User: What shape does this take?
Amino acid sequence: MTSPSDGFDNPRRAKPRKGLVDTAAAALKDLGDLIQAELELLRAEISEKLALTALSASLIGAGIVLLLATLVLLLQAAVGALVALGLSWLAATLMMATITLILGGGLVWSGYNNLAHRLTPTRTITQIQKDAKTHTGLE
Assistant: This one.
């Protein structure tokens, strides 16, 4: 004999299968979790890089201060050498000031012009112009 629970009157309950919507929802949840984890990793890495950048910037700053002090000492030595060659102290100082003014001004001007031209995103501007022409049909 069979028991009432084992009989054919009581159909076996099949495991409910996940539907397409449930699978898609789970995939989107997993994708969201993955993106959140990646963003946390990005935040941690950026924080680490910023700390390293701050340390490097402070080392560069300290080096620049020492290099400027060295430059001043070298200019004083050059003035002293010109005075030893027979120029007056005032003439030697003015000569070194003129030379350093011309060299420094030239370097600043050259660097500024170089920076202004290189910071312009020319490839991006060109691509945007091409895209605009393509989308508007104004080729």
Notes: The CA atoms of residues 61 and 67 lie 10 Å apart. DSSP finds three helices and no strands in the chain.
